Write a sequence for this structure.
């Protein structure tokens, strides 16, 4: 008896298979990354990075290599391998089409532009999170994970030259955006759509997985919102690229603002969480909703004639 194609299996099995593919690539990537650093710089540099000791200048270069080999590449390869060679339906599980209205990128730009106050509001709520006393162990682990991520980010974003800024815009802005959107809004959101049969549920569940994946729990809510925005960009357009664009704008602008602040070209501290007022929070929410409705109208308006043409044909 012929086995069913992967994209005809139950969504639960698809998700399990996707996780297995990612886990295998992730393990291989980590082993390869450690081996590369050990050969290039020695095992002592590997141990220094594990202990968050970046006093050795070689450890910073090694950290970049590790980030790319152990994280960015596996996140990118998992949905590509799953979409092209496992499910054999890349258009469905990655959504790489570029046949979408260019106006969607402009609307997505303005969505990201006005989202800063709402992101700050959610971040401030998140920072006040306190777990019950009986979950003290979990809370301490979350804080330790947060601190570890903060220290690694601080090292990467310590930019001395313009090239350091450009390098981070490419790595953190562009490459990370492509890899994460392929994996989350491409592969996982597609599977969740099949599983829940509800676009909104699929988007928010995927956004929650996306946020939790970063292991930065005190930034969970703002990243949840961003994940949902990217999810709607993909769901309504049928293309991964508006989400990649929005993700790039968010990450790339954070890198650029950090660089400009470090070089004292601007006074706005990117770590300041009290930039906006209550009326700006409300204004941000209202404008985002309006822009999303505009985005949906443009995206679905383009799809409808194509659908009618197929039906008439």
């Amino acid at each position: 008896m012929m086995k069913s194609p992967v994209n005809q299996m139950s969504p639960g099995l698809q998700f399990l298979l996707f996780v297995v593919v990612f886990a295998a690539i992730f393990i291989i990537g980590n082993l390869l990354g450690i081996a590369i650093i050990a050969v290039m710089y020695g095992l002592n540099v590997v141990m220094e990075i594990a202990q968050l000791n970046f006093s050795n200048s070689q450890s910073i270069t090694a950290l970049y290599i590790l980030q790319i080999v152990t994280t960015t590449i596996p996140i990118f390869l998992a949905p590509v391998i799953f979409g092209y060679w496992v499910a054999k339906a890349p258009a469905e599980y990655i959504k790489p089409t570029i046949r979408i209205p260019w106006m969607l990128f402009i609307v997505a730009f303005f969505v990201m532009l006005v989202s800063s106050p709402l992101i700050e509001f959610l971040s401030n709520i998140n920072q006040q999170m306190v777990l019950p006393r009986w979950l003290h162990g979990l809370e301490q682990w979350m804080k330790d994970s947060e601190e570890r991520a903060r220290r690694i980010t601080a090292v990467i974003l310590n930019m001395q030259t313009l090239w350091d800024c450009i390098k981070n815009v490419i790595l953190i802005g562009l490459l990370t955006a492509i890899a994460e959107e392929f994996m989350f809004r491409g592969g996982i959101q597609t599977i969740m759509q099949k599983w829940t049969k509800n676009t909104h549920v699929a988007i928010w569940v995927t956004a929650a997985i996306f946020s939790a994946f970063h292991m930065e729990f005190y930034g969970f809510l703002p990243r949840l919102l961003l994940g949902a925005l990217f999810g709607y960009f993909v769901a309504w357009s049928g293309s991964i690229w508006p989400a990649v664009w929005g993700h790039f704008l968010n990450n790339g602008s954070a890198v650029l603002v950090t660089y400009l602040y470090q070089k004292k070209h601007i006074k706005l501290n990117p770590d300041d969480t009290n930039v906006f007022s209550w009326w700006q929070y409300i204004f941000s929410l209202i404008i985002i909703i309006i822009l999303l409705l505009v985005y949906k109208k443009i995206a679905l308006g383009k799809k409808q004639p194509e659908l009618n043409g197929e039906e008439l044909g």
